[in-house]
Amino acid sequence: MVRENSEGEYSEIGGRIHSGADQMAIQSAVFTRKGTERAMRYAFELAKSRRHHVTSATKSNGISHSMPFWDDVFRMVKSDYPETGTASIHIDALAAFFVMKPHIFDVIVASNLFGDILTDLGGAIMGSIGIAPAANLNVEREYPSMFEPVHGSAPDIAGKGISNPIGQIWTGKMMLDFMGYEEIGRLILDAVEDTLADGIKTPDLGGTATNKEVTDAILERLYKR
Length: 225
Description:
The chain contains 7 helices and 8 strands. The longest helix is centred in the last third of the chain and has 16 residues, at 182-197. It is of the alpha/beta class and 225 residues long. The strands form 3 sheets. A 4-stranded parallel β-sheet has the order 1-6-4-5. It has a two-stranded antiparallel sheet with strand order 2-3. The protein has a two-stranded antiparallel sheet with strand order 7-8.
């Protein structure tokens, strides 16, 4: 899932006026060619190391300006990657396909809002948002990137020892990949998968293990590799 994360629907341009029954709120989505193309080119480059397919999340049948612009940029970018298959799917149908047939997707590129929704949905489909990794990338590598799991701080379970450590560990694997240490990242993910296959899981995945027990089990399997 490649999410444009600097503009789009989360632009802070807008405001409120009036009060009572006449109160009004306006918020403007901002899509630039630079920001849109940057996310899309990253998605196409990522697809080269996967199954060579990129799906664009759109809603150009209902959002009449920003989404047709998004589609235009997607068509322009994909012309530079003739070896990569593509699809452009409306976000409502795409969300349904995530649940019904997630195996058909490889790399998906989406706007800020659509990407936000789909990544949380993806975490739920995997079994728990607690295992979903994420990264905020400076794709030009001029400045540091930030790596953090999708789930955030989860204050409702803080200190109980039941939080799932896999989201954070998998995020570390993504950082290693981004830094060029793919082999080490693969070993970490293998250890995670082996731990889950052995039934060592936190309660959010239907298990009984604590955060520390899952972490220790992953480390044990990693050290054996």
